[in-house]
Write a structure and sequence with these properties.
The complex is a heterotrimer of chains A (321), B (265) and C (266). Chain B has 265 residues and is an all-alpha fold. Helix content of chain B is 72%, strand content 0%. Chain B starts with a helix and ends in a 6-residue tail after the last helix. By secondary structure, chain C is mainly α. Chain C has 14 helices and no strands. Classes of the chains: A alpha/beta (321), B mainly alpha (265), C mainly alpha (266). Chains in contact: A-C, B-C.
C-alpha cells in the first residue's frame, strides 16, 4: 500500500446565492468541489499539485491534513484517516500556507518556536538540535529575536517554514509557498525544499501556480480541474503534449518578403525583427531554416524556449478549465 | 456638481448597509430584548418609588433610545482600518473634500442603520401591552417637532462622529481615545440611563451639551417633557452645535490632511 | 497538566504581545475603567433616585452588580478566545492552523486570546462587591466565602458555555450572531439585578436557559441573608452547577459542529 492512498474522494459545499428579487429566501446551490479524486503518493515523493483557481486543490489539501471532513471516499495517510484521528495525524505533518501565518505577529519568532515546542510536546534537546539545524539552513540565526511583523516577506516565509518543520514532519503540504517572493528568496527556498526532501525523505505535496517551482522541484505532477483529476505523470510528458510550437526571431540585412513560408507558420513583424511561430510536426526545423535563408541574408537568428506558463494556459484551455 | 458626488457616496453606503439583512434582523431582536429588560427594570423600580417623571414617559424613552440607537455610536471602523492599512491613500487621491466624503458616509450609515431598525422596533414597541410599550406622542405637533429635531440631531451626531474620527486619525491606534469618546457619548446621550432619571441639577447642565441634541431633545419633545413653547430654544441650540461641530471638524480634518502619515505600503 | 502549561505559556505570550504597544494598552485599560465606572455610576444614580428595589437595599444591589462584573470580566480575561476571538479565528483562517496542531481545538481556542484590559473592570466589580458587603452588611463566614467563590467560578463557566453558542453559529457561518448577544450581554445587563424583579418569562429564561439566577442569585441571596424560597442551605452549593451543565451541553454541540467546519478561502 502506498504512503498516501486517496480513493474516489468527494466533497461538496452548499453556497448561498445572492437573494433575487421577488424571492423571500436565498436559494442554495451545491458546488461539487471534488468529484471522485484518486491518488497514490509514495513516501519521499515530491509532487506538484496544479490546477486553475477553484479547481479543488485547497480542498484536497485540507482533507488530507484533517481540517475538512469529506462527503465520501477513502483516505489513508500512513494508515491514518486524517479527519478521524486528527490529533494523531497532524503530529506527523507540516503545512505552510503562503498567504497565512502560523507564527505570532508581535513577538520574536523564537518565542513562537518555544510555544510550538509545548504544542507538539517536543523535548528540549530535540527541539534545540532541530532549531539549530533549521536556523542554519534557512539562515534565520540573526532574526530569531525579531518580531514577525518586522520581517520582510522572504524572511517571513523562511520563518514559517522553520515553524512547520520543527516537529520533523514526514509529510509537508506547501500551498503557494513562493507567492510574492523575489528571485533570490525563491531560489533559496527551492534549494532548501529539495535538500529537506532528499536528506530527510520528507514527502512533499506542493500546490502552486508558479510552474517554475514545479519544474524545479517536482518529479511528478497531478493536474486537477473542476474537481476531477486530469493528468498524473511526469511534468516533461505533460509538457511534451502541449509543447508543439516553436518561435524563432530573424533579422535580415535589407528588406525581405516572407510570403513564401508555408501556411501553417504565423509571423509578425516588430521593427526589424520577424517573429515566426511554427509547428515542427508540420514544418520540420531544417526545412524552415533553409526557407528562411533562401529569402535573404540573415544577420541574426534567435530561437526562444517555449514559455511554460503559455503551455499550461494552452493545456487549461484544451481541458476546458 | 460636487454635491452629486457626495450624494452618490451616500447612495453607495446605503446599498452596502442594506446588504446585511441577516445581521440586522438579529440586531433588532437583540435590541428589542434589551429594551424589554430595561422596561422590566424600570417598572420594578417605579413600583416601590413613584417619580415625577411618569413611568410611561420613561418607557417611551427606553424604546425610542433602542429604536434610534444606531444614530449614536457605530464608529466607522472602516476608516480606522483604512488609515492603519494605508488604503486611505486612495481616498486622499480623490478630488473631493475628505471631510465631506466621510461625512456623507457616516450620515448614510447612521440614517439607514436607524431607519431600518427603528421601524420594526417601534412597531414592536407599539404592540406591547400598556405600560410595557411605547406611548403615543404628547400631541401631533409634538410628534412633528420631534421628527424635525431628530433630523437636526442626525446632523449633529454625524458631526460629532467625524470630529471623533478626526481626533483618532492623529494616533495610530485609536481604540483608547475612541472608547473614551464613545463612553462620553453613551452617558450624555442617555443610553446607559435615561437622562430624565439623572439628578435634576445635573440635567440642567447636561441639556446644554452637544450630545443631548442628538436623541434626548427629540425624545423629550415626543413625550411632551419639553413643551412646544421651548421648540425655538431647542432648535436654536441644535443649530448652534451643528454649526460649531461642523466648523471644528472641517478645521481639524484640513489640518490632519497635511500631516496624515500614510502607513503600510 | 501539560495543557495547563500550554495555556499559561500562551497567556504569557499574549501579554507580551499586548505590551508591545504600551501607550495604547494603558489608554485602553483606562478607557475600560471609565466604561465600567460609567455603568456603576448609572446604578448609583438609580439608587439615588429610587433608593431600593423591592426587598433589596442599595448595598444588596451593589453586591449583585459586583458579582456580575467580576464573573463576566474574569471570563473575558481567561476565556477571550471564546468570548470574543472566535469569529476572527474563523474569518482569518486561523482555525485551520489550530486544526493542524495535535492539541484539542477548544484548548487552543482558549489559548488564542486574552483581554487583560478588563482588569480595571474587575477592579470596579471588586469595589462594588466590597461596598455592597459593607453596606448590606454581610456577616462573612467560611461557607459564605466558599459560596461566593463557587458562584464566580460557575458563572464564568456558564458564560463560556453561552458564548460557545456564538462560536457554533460562526462555524455554520450564520450571520445573525447578534441574536446570541441577547443571552450573553443581555444576560449580563439583566442579571446585574436580582432576577426576582423580572416578570415570569424572563425569570424562566434566566433560570433554565441562561441560568444566571442559579449560578449567581441563589448564592448571593444566601450570602446576603435573604430567604431562599424555603430551600435548605445546601441547595446554594448545588444550583450553581447548572453553569457546568450548560457548558457540558454546549461542548458536545461544539464538537459536533466542528465536524461540519468548512474552512474559508482557497
Amino acid at each position: 500500500m502506498s504512503y498516501i492512498e486517496v480513493e474516489n474522494l468527494t466533497k461538496s459545499f452548499t453556497v448561498r446565492k445572492k437573494r433575487e428579487k421577488g424571492h423571500l429566501l436565498r436559494e442554495k446551490t451545491t458546488v461539487q468541489a471534488l468529484k471522485g479524486i484518486s491518488l497514490q503518493i509514495e513516501k519521499g515523493d515530491l509532487i506538484g499539485y496544479i490546477g486553475p483557481n477553484g479547481a479543488g486543490k485547497s480542498t484536497t489539501v485540507k482533507i488530507l491534513s484533517g481540517i475538512l471532513t469529506p462527503d465520501g471516499g477513502r483516505v489513508s495517510v500512513d494508515g491514518r484517516v486524517p479527519w478521524l484521528e486528527r490529533k494523531k495525524h497532524v503530529r506527523h505533518i507540516g503545512v505552510v500556507f503562503g498567504q497565512r501565518s502560523q507564527l505570532w505577529w508581535d513577538v520574536p519568532i523564537l518565542d513562537s518556536y518555544c510555544l510550538l515546542k509545548d504544542i507538539y510536546r517536543l523535548t528540549d534537546a530535540d527541539w534545540k538540535t532541530r532549531l539549530d539545524e533549521l536556523t542554519e539552513k534557512l539562515d534565520l540565526g540573526s532574526l530569531l529575536r525579531t518580531p514577525l511583523r518586522q520581517l520582510s516577506l522572504g524572511q517571513r516565509m523562511r520563518a514559517e517554514l522553520c515553524g512547520s518543520l520543527l516537529h520533523r514532519p514526514e509529510l509537508l503540504f506547501l500551498d503557494e509557498p513562493t507567492i510574492g517572493l523575489d528571485a533570490v528568496s525563491k531560489l533559496a527556498l527551492r534549494d532548501f525544499l529539495k535538500e529537506e526532501n532528499r536528506k530527510n525523505g520528507t514527502t512533499v505535496l506542493l500546490t502552486t501556480h508558479d510552474m517554475e517551482d514545479v519544474a524545479a522541484l517536482c518529479r511528478r505532477v497531478t493536474v486537477i480541474g473542476h474537481g476531477s483529476k486530469l493528468y498524473d505523470g511526469t511534468l516533461n510528458e505533460l509538457l511534451a503534449r502541449y509543447d508543439t510550437k516553436r518561435t524563432v526571431t530573424a533579422r535580415y540585412d535589407g528588406e525581405v518578403s516572407l510570403e513564401s513560408l508555408p501556411e501553417s507558420c504565423s509571423m509578425s513583424r516588430d521593427g526589424e525583427d520577424w517573429r515566426i511561430v511554427y509547428e515542427p510536426a508540420k514544418v520540420p526545423t531544417p526545412e524552415l531554416l533553409s526557407r528562411l535563408q533562401s529569402v535573404g541574408s540573415i544577420r541574426e537568428l534567435t530561437a526562444q524556449p517555449q514559455n511554460i506558463d503559455h503551455m499550461i494556459a494552452a493545456m487549461y484551455r484544451e481541458m476546458d478549465l | 456638481m460636487r454635491i452629486k458626488a457626495y450624494l452618490s457616496i451616500f447612495r453607495m453606503r446605503l446599498k452596502q448597509e442594506l446588504q446585511y439583512r441577516g445581521a440586522m434582523i438579529g440586531g433588532i431582536c437583540c435590541q428589542a430584548f434589551f429594551g424589554l429588560i430595561l422596561v422590566a427594570l424600570y417598572r420594578a423600580l417605579y413600583a416601590g418609588h413613584p417619580q415625577t417623571v411618569p413611568l410611561e414617559a420613561t418607557v417611551s424613552y427606553v424604546w425610542l433610545q433602542q429604536a434610534f440607537f444606531r444614530m449614536l455610536g457605530a464608529t466607522d471602523n472602516d476608516l480606522a482600518d483604512r488609515i492603519r492599512t494605508g488604503d486611505i491613500a486612495y481616498d486622499l487621491a480623490r478630488p473631493l473634500n475628505l471631510y465631506g466624503y466621510y461625512y456623507s458616509r457616516v450620515m448614510a450609515q447612521k440614517l439607514t442603520g436607524s431607519l431600518m431598525r427603528a421601524a420594526p422596533m417601534l412597531v414592536f414597541a407599539a404592540l406591547l401591552p400598556k405600560g410595557w410599550g411605547i406611548s403615543a406622542p404628547a400631541s401631533l405637533p409634538a410628534l412633528i417637532a420631534g421628527i424635525a429635531a431628530l433630523m437636526l440631531g442626525l446632523v449633529v451626531s454625524s458631526a460629532i462622529e467625524n470630529l471623533t474620527v478626526g481626533f483618532t486619525m492623529r494616533t495610530l491606534d485609536p481604540r483608547g481615545i475612541q472608547a473614551m469618546l464613545n463612553l462620553l457619548m453613551m452617558i450624555l446621550s442617555g443610553s446607559i440611563l435615561p437622562l430624565t432619571l439623572f439628578p435634576d441639577a445635573w440635567q440642567r447642565v447636561i441639556a446644554l451639551m452637544p450630545h443631548t441634541q442628538m436623541l434626548d431633545a427629540p425624545i423629550r419633545l415626543y413625550t411632551g417633557q419639553r413643551s412646544l413653547s421651548e421648540l425655538l430654544q431647542i432648535i436654536g441650540l441644535q443649530i448652534f452645535w451643528a454649526a460649531a461641530l461642523l466648523g471644528l471638524g472641517l478645521l481639524l480634518w484640513s489640518r490632519n490632511r497635511k500631516r496624515l502619515t500614510v502607513q503600510g505600503g | 497538566m501539560d495543557t495547563v502549561k500550554l495555556y499559561l505559556h500562551s497567556m504569557g505570550m499574549l501579554l507580551k504581545s499586548h505590551f508591545q504597544y504600551p501607550v495604547s494598552f494603558f489608554m485602553q485599560t483606562a478607557a475600560q475603567l471609565v466604561m465600567e465606572g460609567g455603568e456603576f455610576m448609572a446604578l448609583l444614580l438609580i439608587v439615588d433616585r429610587f433608593d431600593h428595589l423591592n426587598q433589596w437595599t442599595p448595598g444588596n444591589l451593589y453586591f449583585f452588580f459586583g458579582l456580575m462584573a467580576v464573573s463576566f470580566y474574569l471570563t473575558e480575561i481567561f476565556g477571550r478566545g471564546i468570548t470574543g476571538n472566535f469569529p476572527y479565528l474563523v474569518r482569518s483562517g486561523q482555525l485551520d492552523t489550530i486544526l493542524l496542531r495535535p492539541r484539542g481545538v477548544l484548548t487552543q481556542v482558549l489559548c488564542s486570546a486574552t483581554d487583560p484590559r478588563r482588569i480595571t473592570c474587575i477592579a470596579v466589580g471588586v469595589a462594588a462587591l466590597v461596598m455592597g458587603s459593607l453596606q448590606s452588611p454581610v456577616h462573612w463566614s467560611f461557607l459564605k466565602a466558599l459560596a461566593l467563590t463557587e458562584s464566580i467560578c460557575m458563572s464564568m463557566i456558564l458564560l463560556l458555555g453561552l458564548f460557545m453558542i456564538e462560536a457554533v453559529f460562526c462555524i455554520f457561518s450564520v450571520k445573525s450572531v447578534e441574536l446570541v448577544n441577547a443571552l450573553t450581554y443581555g444576560g449580563r445587563s439583566a442579571c446585574e439585578y436580582p432576577v426576582d424583579i423580572y416578570p415570569r418569562p424572563l425569570r424562566i429564561l434566566f433560570s433554565a436557559v441562561a441560568p444566571f439566577a442559579l449560578t449567581m442569585h441563589v448564592p448571593a441571596a444566601y450570602i446576603l441573608d435573604k430567604p431562599l424560597y424555603g430551600w435548605p442551605v445546601w441547595t446554594v452549593f448545588v444550583t450553581p452547577l447548572a453553569g457546568l451543565a450548560v457548558f457540558a451541553v454546549m461542548y458536545r454541540v461544539f464538537r459536533l459542529a466542528m465536524r461540519h467546519y468548512r474552512s474559508t478561502g482557497s
